[in-house]
Amino acid sequence: MTINIINRSGHALPNYETIASAGMDLRANLEEPIVLAPLGRAIVKTGLFIELPIGYEAQVRPRSGLAAKKGVTVLNSPGTIDADYRGEIGVILVNLSNEPFTVENGERIAQLIVAKHERAEWNEVEVLTETSRGEGGFGSTGVK
């Protein structure tokens, strides 16, 4: 699949780091560093603009290393970029650690996954088919 992209950052285009990678790293495009205080959040711009085909979305997800090592993650994970959005990709980062975190220009801050999706049509009914789980909610299938 080929996707049109405008790159107004000073960084290389996102790419797959390995043959089996599902996501491509997004980099911060900053004129000056951003300091995220503990529990602080900010929209970090990437300098990237994309044109997805209808029927696809781009999902912005956390980078596991940044989350595990620094406590920094994507707040609305996964963030969705719709096929009709043409603005700059921004990443809502949140610092869940007890220490300030500085986002530097060019730093890998999130990953982008392109995924196909379906459009649902609702069929309003009075009764749903029964299952063994029924109305069992959170934790109803057990701990182990």
TrEMBL record:
<keyword id="KW-0546">Nucleotide metabolism</keyword>
<dbReference type="InterPro" id="IPR033704">
    <property type="entry name" value="dUTPase_trimeric"/>
</dbReference>
<feature type="binding site">
    <location>
        <begin position="63"/>
        <end position="65"/>
    </location>
    <ligand>
        <name>substrate</name>
    </ligand>
</feature>
<dbReference type="GO" id="GO:0004170">
    <property type="term" value="F:dUTP diphosphatase activity"/>
</dbReference>
<dbReference type="GO" id="GO:0000287">
    <property type="term" value="F:magnesium ion binding"/>
</dbReference>
<comment type="pathway">
    <text>Pyrimidine metabolism; dUMP biosynthesis; dUMP from dCTP (dUTP route): step 2/2.</text>
</comment>
<comment type="function">
    <text>This enzyme is involved in nucleotide metabolism: it produces dUMP, the immediate precursor of thymidine nucleotides and it decreases the intracellular concentration of dUTP so that uracil cannot be incorporated into DNA.</text>
</comment>
<feature type="binding site">
    <location>
        <position position="76"/>
    </location>
    <ligand>
        <name>substrate</name>
    </ligand>
</feature>
<feature type="domain" description="dUTPase-like">
    <location>
        <begin position="13"/>
        <end position="142"/>
    </location>
</feature>
<dbReference type="InterPro" id="IPR029054">
    <property type="entry name" value="dUTPase-like"/>
</dbReference>
<dbReference type="InterPro" id="IPR008181">
    <property type="entry name" value="dUTPase"/>
</dbReference>
<keyword id="KW-0378">Hydrolase</keyword>
<protein>
    <recommendedName>
        <fullName>Deoxyuridine 5'-triphosphate nucleotidohydrolase</fullName>
        <ecNumber>3.6.1.23</ecNumber>
    </recommendedName>
</protein>
<comment type="similarity">
    <text>Belongs to the dUTPase family.</text>
</comment>
<dbReference type="GO" id="GO:0006226">
    <property type="term" value="P:dUMP biosynthetic process"/>
</dbReference>
<dbReference type="GO" id="GO:0046081">
    <property type="term" value="P:dUTP catabolic process"/>
</dbReference>
<feature type="binding site">
    <location>
        <begin position="80"/>
        <end position="82"/>
    </location>
    <ligand>
        <name>substrate</name>
    </ligand>
</feature>
<dbReference type="InterPro" id="IPR036157">
    <property type="entry name" value="dUTPase-like_sf"/>
</dbReference>
<keyword id="KW-0460">Magnesium</keyword>
<keyword id="KW-0479">Metal-binding</keyword>
<dbReference type="Pfam" id="PF00692">
    <property type="entry name" value="dUTPase"/>
</dbReference>
